């Protein structure tokens, strides 16, 4: 395997220089963190599943005209993506009250929201990703009003598309987080979906049982975390080739 220059080492992913200019290799790790890094763990096989799930969702979104950074999957843990200038904002879309929202507003977890609610958080580990408004975003110059309009429109389209897709396989899309980046083509700039779409960044509940099938299993020590991610992949019809034997992890690391 060729040696690649590591550009960024994140909590659940590492970014390497890509084979051509303007590309990056996104490597999915088994590491998991929660509560602003206070909780750490390793979920064997998670990286393989998230690589595959994110590939699937980004491809389907691409087919309905949502621009994404995804180019192609390279192997079980890596995908080739377009290099973008990441906008330092986490856009969260919520359909049902859960997690931080339920706590902040004293809403019972599981309450259906009157409509989808979009929130913004400033990406900063030091500050613990504070919740922000459009005022902060435009005043600090993190994004222009036009960028923001594009991001919200895309986030809502992603929500509609993924809500339907998951409903079809018996899962409720409770909420999710997305990140966007700027892609330059000469003097023209487009906002495209970046980062990943996986059960690390969304809440998925079984329609029948309300069972959590996402990272809350790790956050709340519910156990069977990898099994839940695997079940999401199974229902999507994309279990990695070879089945569970692929989830052993370390052997495929390098
Ligand atoms: N989320 C994320 N990264 C973050 C914070 C939140 O991917 O740094 C996702 C989380 O998985 C959930 C949604 O965004 O699907 C809303 O998260 P919430 O604000 O409820 O986060 P919590 O306080 O529960 O971590």
Folded structure, characterized:
This protein is an alpha+beta fold and 254 residues long. The protein folds into two domains: 3-84 and 223-246, Phosphorylase Kinase, domain 1; 85-206, ATP-grasp fold, B domain (D-amino Acid Aminotransferase, Chain A, domain 1), CATH 3.30.470.20. 28% of the residues lie in helices and 31% in strands. The chain has helices at residues 46-63, 99-105, 134-139, 145-167, 216-219, 225-236; strands at residues 6-9, 13-17, 23-28, 31-34, 39-42, 70-73, 78-82, 85-86, 89-96, 112-122, 131-132, 171-178, 180-185, 188-193, 202-206. A five-stranded antiparallel β-sheet has the order 1-2-3-7-6. The longest helix has 23 residues, at 145-167. Bound molecules: uridine-5'-diphosphate. Residues 90, 92, 98-101, 129, 175-177, 201-203, 215 line the site of uridine-5'-diphosphate.
In CATH, the architecture of the largest domain is 2-Layer Sandwich
- Taking the alpha carbons of the first and last residues, their distance comes to 8 Å
Overall number of domains = 2
Helix content: 25-40%
The shape is globular
Structure class:
alpha+beta
Which fold name is given in CATH as the topology of the largest domain? D-amino Acid Aminotransferase, Chain A, domain 1
What is the ordering of alpha helices and beta strands?
EEEEEHEEEEHEEHHEEEEHH
Please state roughly what percent of the residues sit in beta strands, choosing from under 5%, 5-15%, 15-25%, 25-35%, 35-45% or over 45%. Answer: 25-35%
Strand order of the largest sheet: 1-2-3-7-6
- CATH homolog superfamily of the largest domain: ATP-grasp fold, B domain
Ligand identities: uridine-5'-diphosphate
| DSSP summary: helix tally | 6
Low-pLDDT residue spans = 249-254
| CATH classification class of the largest domain | Alpha Beta
Number of strands: 15
**What is the makeup of the main sheet?**
5 strands, antiparallel
- Rg calculated over all Cα atoms: 18 Å
Q: Look at the structure and give the mean pLDDT.
A: 94
């Amino acid at each position: 395997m060729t040696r690649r220059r590591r550009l960024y080492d994140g909590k659940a992913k590492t970014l390497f220089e890509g084979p051509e200019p303007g590309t990056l290799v996104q490597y999915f790790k088994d590491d998991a963190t929660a509560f602003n890094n206070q909780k750490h763990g390793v979920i064997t096989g998670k990286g393989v599943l998230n690589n595959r799930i994110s590939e699937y969702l980004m491809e389907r979104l691409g087919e309905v005209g949502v621009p994404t950074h995804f180019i192609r999957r390279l192997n079980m843990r890596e995908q080739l993506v377009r290099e973008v200038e990441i906008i330092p904002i986490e856009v969260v879309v919520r359909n049902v009250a859960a997690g931080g929202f339920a706590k902040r507003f004293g809403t019972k977890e599981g309450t259906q929201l009157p409509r989808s609610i979009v929130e913004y958080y400033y990406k900063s580990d030091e500050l613990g990703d504070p919740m922000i408004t459009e005022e902060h975003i435009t005043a600090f110059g993190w994004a222009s009003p036009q960028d923001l309009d594009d991001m919200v429109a895309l986030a809502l389209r992603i929500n509609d598309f993924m809500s339907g897709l998951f409903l079809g396989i018996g899962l409720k899309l409770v909420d999710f987080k997305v990140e966007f980046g700027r892609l330059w083509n000469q003097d023209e700039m487009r906002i495209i979906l970046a980062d990943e779409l996986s059960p690390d960044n969304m809440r998925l509940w079984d329609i029948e049982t309300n069972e959590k099938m996402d990272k809350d299993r790790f956050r709340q020590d519910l156990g069977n975390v990898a099994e839940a991610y695997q079940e999401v992949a199974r229902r999507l019809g994309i279990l990695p080739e070879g089945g569970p034997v692929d989830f052993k992890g370390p052997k495929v690391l390098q």
